[in-house]
Amino acid sequence: MKNLFPIILILSALTLSNCTKEIDFAEQDIAPRIVVNSLFTNDSVWSAHISRSVGVLDNTSYTTIDDASVNIFDENANLITTLTHQGNGLYTSPTGVSPLPNQSYTLEASAGGYQSVNATNFIPPAVPIYQLDTVTSTNSNDETILEATITFQDPPNVSNYYMLEVLVKGTWESWEGDSVEFREPLEISCDDINVETVNRFNFGGFENTYLYLMLKDQNFDGENYALTFSVINYAELKEMELFGEIRLVNTSEAYFNYLTSFNMYQRTINNPFATPVQVYSNVNNGMGIFAGGTLTSWDVEF
User: Fold this and answer.
1) Does residue 165 fall inside a structural domain?
2) For 130-169, b where at least 16 C-beta lie within 10 A, e where not — what string?
């Protein structure tokens, strides 16, 4: 019996080797497709970034498309504007045309060697901020923070999707002596139960920190809703005498789904054990996003 074990191992190895099957890999890649990235609001001109998808066997790092034809149409198929290339795949409206609330728009893009793509999205109406209350307080680290509460009327009997961010804005002087305007998002903390947590991170001792908040109205449809959040770096901003802007965007569902899935993708991209996440796309025959929202804002002084 003592010689039987090696024989079993040899037979097992032979069996396993006989079960091995080589699968030929067809060295052909999926044809590259046009990728559109256009998130738009009513306070900015039409723009889109146009690039191409990268296949498994593609080693090219340069993916922007510089010779695309990009057109924006209204819901009646009237041409609104033709975007022109500004460099690095960025296309903008030369006439300064901006999206309008409560309208549906279609983007069509084409380029030599690629299948033409299109996408349609409806921009919801504005949801104004009609009240802002602020109070300063001290956190556990004895730092002064600004707690703000905005109140808005959620439109009833329709699904609404919101994004909120707080920007700091001002000017700084360049080496050439020119005044340059800047607008940067601020870290804000929020414990509201309706806020999506997919883009949450820890900052300065605050566990529920965001660069922007995302929430939908399934728990407050048609209500006057009060959303409370804290500006973490308030003390530093106050010393610098800077101004801020609270921005509430009533987004389309596609806009919201894209932001949610993109943040989920960012969380799992470097985790080999995580379930792969497909970033939401509404571009026909291609990839990417064409979606908008209507912005209302409230200026604040820090």
Assistant:
1) yes
2) eeeeeeeeeeeeeeebbebebebebeeeeebbbbbbbbbe
Q: Say if residue 56 is in the same domain as residue 119.
A: yes
pLDDT digits (tens, 9 = 90+) for 228-283: 999 988 877 777 778 899 999 999 999 999 999 999 999 888 888 888 889 999 99
DSSP characters over 187-249: -EE---TTB--TT-EEETTEEEEESSEEEEGGGTTTSEEEEEEEETTHHHHHHTT-EEEEEEE
- Whole-model pTM? 0.85
DSSP state of 158: S
- Residue 292, token pair as written in the block: 């908008």
Question: How many Å apart are CA 38 and CA 121, to the nearest integer?
Answer: 11
Token pair recorded at residue 58: 């593609």
User: Among 259, 251, 253, which Cα is nearest to 42's?
Assistant: 251
Query: Total domain count for the chain?
Result: 2
Residue whose structure tokens are 């010689």:
3
The residues, ordered by sequence, that sit 6+ positions from 159 with a Cβ below 8 Å of its Cβ are 216, 217, 218, 221, 253
Query: 2: how many CB neighbours lie within 10 A of its CB?
Result: 5
Tally Cβ neighbours within 10 Å of residue 256.
23
Residues 98 and 201 in one domain: no
Q: Which amino acid does the sequence have at 220?
A: F
